[in-house]
Amino acid sequence: MMKNSAEVVIIGGGVVGCAIAYNLARMGCTDVVVLEKEYLTAGATGRCGAGIRQQWGTEMNCRLSKASMDTFEVLNEMLEYPVDIELKQDGYLILAYEEKEIEQFKKNIALQNNLEIESRLIDPREAREMVPHLNTEGLLGAAFCSRDGHANPFHVTQAYAEAAKRMGVEIYTYTECRDIEMDGDRIRGVVTDKGKIRTEKVVNAAGGYSDLIGGMVGLDLPVYSERHQIMVTEPVNPLQGPMVISFYHHFYCQQVPHGAFIMGQGDPNEPKGHNIGHSWQFLQELSGKIIKTFPALKKLRVVRQWSGLYNITPDSQPILCEAPELPGFFLAIGFSGHGFMIAPMTGVVMAEMILDKELSMPVHNLDLGRFERGELVLEPSVV
Amino acid sequence: MKDEVILCFCEDLTREEIREAIKNGATSFDELKRLIRCGMGACQGKTCEENIQKEIMAITGKKREELPLPRQRPPSVGIFLQDAARGDNDEE
């Protein structure tokens, strides 16, 4: 039987929704429902590239990802999850092919080092030592942080969900949020396809569909969704330590602990929308980039391709706040392609915000109002 | 005694492991796939799907037609990166 009331209803069974639910319960608020229209991780979380990095170009993305990495390192024990979350910390190697990229990386590294993220600029020779099959032709240098890496998004989400459930949180999968009932500017409840849940607090953690949830309370949120495609190869013996990414060529490529290579690219011409289909053009284009950058991988077999949605804000930083005109309506949206890697700390600050506690990390400048105030700090480092 | 019969050959998953995951709440092929990787290997579920769906039916009591099919994703067979890069261009 579905509960007919809850203190907090979270919309979205991805890593962000589950991490918020866990942290609410941990802080004593266990009367929580998570709504997921399919199954846990069915949206962006389960479709992401599984990379976790701290090498960002804005202070908030750096702070959130650093604190989240600290959590990933102890997540298995913290959540008492029996399956390995497959944390791999062999670093992120970010390739630079243009002088202006080197200049940007120097700025990013200064910021990162200031926030105790141990990144550094390396030359092509050292990059080649780290990734022996890397073609360094045209490469000017690279940024590297050895503590960056990989975690398994399915297991991380499941770990948060199971820990939340043990403390009393209810997670309703295959249950879709259809509407949010209001009385003036107050939230009264959530209407699902399985019935109504009375609540005064709703969290929009709907990832690629956060704009639709915003529409239910009359908010035109400054986010849009965009398809990003991705593919994976058959598993092979360990060959590549670091995740290798290039903003210049718009690709990333890592070998996960299981042995498969996961790779994806951003397409500057991708239209906005909720399309999660796949294209042969993507398969062809990315394969070309990969065998040029890593010639030794040319006889690796691609076994699957898919896509997921980035939910993008104008500054590529998330929106973490209570909606100013709508008390009780909380936003954890607009992660712009890096929600998985900052989910652990997002879960903490959102739970604190919902329970009106002091925030353990100031995220006030990630509010909705920043776009109107024009106080944008643009994140330059997104694939 | 553990049931050591292997149902997913690519990922080496036994009937026992698959049954355990279904009992823990993963009641569709796509959910199982995300948690224990069945159907994620070289065959992409083409050899194991039917047997795994039977296990889901046995435990959940659902009929075959009530179970969602796994999402089909290209390529239909594994393809070398170098061949994918060539696309429809037949020249080397």
Would you summarize the structure shown here?
The complex is a heterodimer of chains A (383) and B (92). Chain A is of the alpha/beta class and 383 residues long.
Can you give a write-up of this model?
The complex is a heterodimer of chains A (383) and B (92). Chain A is an alpha/beta fold and 383 residues long. Chain A is 29% helix and 25% strand. Chain A has eleven helices and 19 strands. In chain A, a hairpin with a 2-residue loop joins strand 9 and strand 10. In chain A, helix 1 packs parallel to helix 7 and helix 3 crosses helix 10. The longest helix of chain A is centred in the N-terminal third of the chain and has 16 residues. Chain A is globular, with a radius of gyration of 20 Å. The model of chain A has no long low-confidence stretch (mean pLDDT 97). By secondary structure, chain B is mainly alpha-helical. Chain B has a domain of 64 residues: Orthogonal Bundle (Arc Repressor Mutant, subunit A), CATH 1.10.10. Helices cover 38% and strands 8% of the residues of chain B. Chain B contains four helices and three strands, in the order ββαααβα. A two-stranded antiparallel ribbon of chain B has the order 1-2. Chain B is elongated and about 55 Å long. The model of chain B has no long low-confidence stretch (mean pLDDT 92). Classes of the chains: A alpha/beta (383), B mainly alpha (92). The interface between A and B is medium-sized, with 29 and 24 residues.
